[in-house]
Design brief:
The structure holds 2 protein chains of 2 kinds. Chain A is α+β, with helices and mostly antiparallel strands. Chain A has 2 domains: about 100 residues, Sandwich (Immunoglobulin-like), CATH 2.60.40; about 290 residues, ABC transporter involved in vitamin B12 uptake, BtuC. Chain A is about 55% helix and about 15% strand. In chain A, strands 1, 2, 3, 6, 8, 10 and 11 form a 7-stranded mixed sheet that branches. Chain A has a 4-stranded antiparallel sheet with strand order 5-4-7-9, with no helix packed on it. A two-stranded antiparallel ribbon of chain A has the order 12-13. In chain A, a hairpin with a 2-residue loop joins strand 2 and strand 3. The longest helix of chain A is centred in the middle third of the chain and has 33 residues. In chain B, helix 2 runs parallel beside helix 7 and helix 11 crosses helix 12. The radius of gyration of chain B is 20 Å and the shape is globular. The relative contact order of chain B is 0.18. The chains are: A alpha+beta, B mainly alpha. At the A-B interface, helix 5, helix 10 and helix 12 of A face helix 4, helix 5, helix 11 and helix 13 of B. Chain B: Keywords: Cell membrane, Membrane, Transmembrane, Transmembrane helix. Chain B: It holds the Pfam family BPD_transp_2. Chain B: InterPro entries: ABC_transp_permease, LivM-like. Chain B: GO terms for molecular function: branched-chain amino acid transmembrane transporter activity.
Chain lengths: ~450, ~325
């Protein structure tokens, strides 16, 4: 390392940013718990009550149904959430919102994205899944008052945020692919790992900023551990690429269900996930979390770019991506570089998992799996194995996913990105920045 | 703990329609991966097409069940062509990523509320069997028990039809892979360029294999839909991975490997799925709840997949010379 002082300075700057953001985060640390009635019953109806986006606490709801012996009533908690356990699935229930418990000035309206709520009395059917979410949105509806242009700008900003977050994960995926040839399906679990370890570190009482740094460090260790336990021995055995891909699928299954074993099937929130949005201009509203998320993503990508372009090990990484045999012949220790790539890729993925936990919002055992295919779409779009391609591809995918909801139903928003993936392979299989030789 | 009960229910799984359904899908995948070398990671979508084609054919179009049963395979043919055209000329891992993405697109399309009136959205479809396929049951009403294999006349009717479809499929696949066509397919798997230099149209052969395997997958979905409701959650990506595990366990480049692999996989999975909660309720699993214990099964599936691929890539019944992982 020629200029050892420079990276140290950058690191200090980065941790200062992390520290500042962390301090800010910790102001909002408050656990979120839904108010629950009949929680011991196997199935449930749950949701939130909110008025123009602000959650309403203390609203009384009652649930009746043929299978229930007595009506169950529940008061919403301070964050507007409620949950009522019900005895049977595949059964109908009636939910009644007690209008007299509402603050003055609220009226019931419907929202296009969730269960339609037209009056204070709602019939729901708890289907085979055994769980139903039912949200009451009160107050003035503003959805038709914003112009198309305003909506587009709002979606673009949201999409950029999502794309940057996706890029952090996709760059790691692409680097690992470039240096080892593995299409790593377990990358999704590396994303989830970052989010879950931050949750655990917050749970044991660390302040949020320390928990987030700790989670990234743990993620790096996780990557290092996976490489030394699994991937390095497989490299020495000269295992074929298809085999490696299927190994990564098996690993992904095992790790994913291990998460579920430990944190269960619920969605957990990191502190600060319910930060109110700030109105910026037009219909664009961002929370501080969104702003911090974008700034952190951009600075981390900048640090990574410097690492890949300026440091010896970064240059070695690119050399191996280009031609592993030639790199080995010119004296590069391929095994050591690949280990570093796993560590860097895993740390980036872990950090993107934390951002994803705020973006969704919530931490679930399969949260990484939800964006795995988008990562692959981004990496393929940009060109497999190139870091800049992954960055460009991610931002395009992020913008596409968010803006497509202006034209198609929001539960189909990932379809657009996946269709683009297939279309790209049809016309330019090497991706935007890839070279033709890679497609074999 | 009722260990005998657990064992008994496990053996019952050998003749479960679910086992037949996954054997069919594994057989299709054997044709794709074992014989043609195609990395299809979207088998769940082919199964979903078979199941939804059947259920929608009856519920929306009002077709008789035997005609509705043909809709799924037809949709699978179209789906295979759409998938194959952009990807069959590319390297294997591209096909893997595209098929897994396409399967996810199919699942999201079945899940969305936009097509809710036809697909039933998240609730799926039910009631397609009672007045049609189940009404055509020739077996007299009653409970028929043969040792661990129990069931009503309906259970046996579904088993019988499922087993029949599976037998026909096995014979067809066996004849196919032992024909000149099958030998060309194996040649493509081993060395595409060599086959091309012999004047074979590699793309066409791969496409035919993709279509035939896809039809088998859709028949698997059909057998599933004949016995139960159709739900989009049944056709998630994990199902594709289970089929892969079953296939690799038995041996990818064989005809009977996928069958044996499916039976072994599903009975072991059922055994662990029944045993672990039973152990947990006895307090033998370090205080895990029975719901947590049931998840151990999925962790073990993942580990099994890793171990098979690393240590016995040819599977239990496979021949090491026919290693399909050469590339």
């Amino acid at each position: 390392m020629v200029n050892a002082s420079k990276p140290a300075a950058r690191l200090i700057k980065l941790s200062a940013v992390l520290f500042a953001v962390g301090l800010w985060f910790s102001l909002f640390a408050s656990p979120v718990a839904a108010e629950t009635t009949n929680g011991e019953l196997p199935f449930s109806i749950s949701g939130t009550v909110s008025d123009s986006g602000t959650p309403l606490g203390g609203v009384k709801l009652s649930v009746t149904g043929e299978t229930m012996t007595a009506p169950a009533s529940v008061l919403t908690s301070a964050d507007g959430t409620w949950l009522v356990g019900v005895p049977e699935k595949n059964a109908d229930y009636v939910i009644n919102l007690d209008v007299s418990s509402l603050p003055a000035g609220s009226s019931i309206v419907d929202d296009p994205d969730t269960v339609l709520v037209e009056s204070e009395k709602v019939n729901v059917r708890v289907g085979p899944g055994g769980r139903v979410a039912l949200n009451f949105f009160l107050g003035e509806v503003e959805r038709n008052t914003t112009s198309f242009f305003d909506q587009l700008v709002a979606r673009l900003i949201n999409g950029l945020n999502f794309g940057l977050m996706l890029a952090l994960a996709a760059i790691g995926l692409s680097l690992i692919y470039g240096t080892t040839g593995i299409s790593n399906f377990a990358h999704a679990e590396m994303v989830t790992f970052g989010a879950i370890s931050s949750l655990i570190l917050v749970g044991i009482g660390l302040p949020l900023w320390l928990a987030l740094i700790g989670a990234v460090v743990l993620s790096a260790l996780f990557g290092w551990g996976m490489d030394s336990v699994l991937w390095a021995p497989l490299r020495r055995r000269n295992t074929g690429l298809v085999q490696l891909m299927i190994v990564s699928i098996g690993l992904s299954l095992a790790v994913r269900y291990t998460y579920q074993l430990f944190i269960g099937g619920n969605t957990e929130q990191l502190p600060g996930a319910d930060t109110p949005k700030l109105q910026l201009f037009g219909s664009v509203s961002l929370s501080w979390i969104d702003v911090a998320s974008m700034i952190l993503s951009i600075s981390l990508i900048a640090v990574f770019a410097w690492w890949l372009l300026r440091t010896r090990i970064g240059k070695a990484t690119r050399a191996i991506s280009d031609n592993p045999s030639l790199a080995a012949a010119s004296g590069i220790n391929v095994d050591a570089v690949v280990r570093v790539v796993w560590i860097v890729g895993s740390a980036l993925a872990g950090f993107s998992g934390i951002l994803w936990a705020y973006f969704r919002p919530g931490i679930r055992w399969d949260m990484g799996g939800q964006i795995l295919l988008l990562m692959f779409a981004a990496v393929t779009l940009g060109g497999l194995g190139t870091a800049w391609g992954a960055l460009a591809g991610s931002i395009i995918v992020g913008l596409l996913v968010e803006t497509s909801t202006l034209f198609i139903p929001s539960d189909l928003k990932y379809v657009g990105a996946l269709v683009i993936l297939i279309v790209i392979l049809l016309f330019r299989p090497q991706g935007i920045l890839g070279r033709k030789e890679r497609i074999g | 703990m009722d260990f005998l009960g657990v064992l008994n229910s496990t053996i019952g799984f050998v003749l479960d329609p679910v086992t037949f359904a996954f054997s069919l899908a594994a057989l299709g995948l054997a044709l794709h991966f074992g014989f043609a070398g195609l990395l299809n990671m979207g088998m769940a979508a082919f199964m979903a097409l078979g199941a939804y084609g059947y259920a929608i054919g009856i519920l929306t179009f009002g077709l008789p069940w035997y005609l509705a049963a043909l809709l799924g395979p037809l949709a699978a043919v179209i789906f295979a062509i759409i998938l194959g055209v952009p990807t069959l000329r590319l390297r294997g891992d591209y096909l893997a990523i595209v098929t897994i993405a396409a399967a996810e697109i199919m699942r999201l399309l079945f899940l969305t509320t936009t097509f809710g009136p036809v697909t039933g959205s998240a609730d799926g479809l039910s009631g397609h069997n009672s007045a049609t396929f189940w009404a055509a049951n020739p077996i007299a009403e009653g409970q028929y028990d043969f040792g661990p294999f129990r069931g009503t006349e309906l259970d046996w009717w579904v088993r019988l039809v499922g087993f029949g479809i599976l037998c026909v499929a096995v014979v067809v696949v066996w004849l196919l892979v032992n024909s000149p066509w099958g030998r060309v397919l194996k040649g493509i798997r081993e060395d595409e360029d060599a086959l091309r230099s012999l004047g074979k149209n590699v793309f066409a052969f791969k496409m035919q294999a993709l279509i035939i395997g896809g039809i088998l997958g859709s028949l698997g979905g059909l057998v599933l839909a004949m016995g139960q409701n159709v739900n989009p959650n049944q056709y998630v990506t994990s199902i594709t991975f289970y089929i892969w595990t079953a296939l690799l366990l038995g041996g990818a480049a064989t005809v009977f490997g996928p069958l044996a692999g499916s039976i072994i996989f599903w009975t072991i999975q059922a055994f662990i799925g029944l045993l672990m909660p039973a152990l947990a309720s006895e307090g033998l699993l370090f205080g895990l709840s029975s719901i947590q214990a049931a998840q151990i099964k999925f962790i073990l599936v993942g580990l099994a997949l890793v171990l098979i691929v690393v240590f016995r890539p040819q599977g239990i019944f496979g021949n090491k010379k026919e290693l399909t992982f050469v590339k």
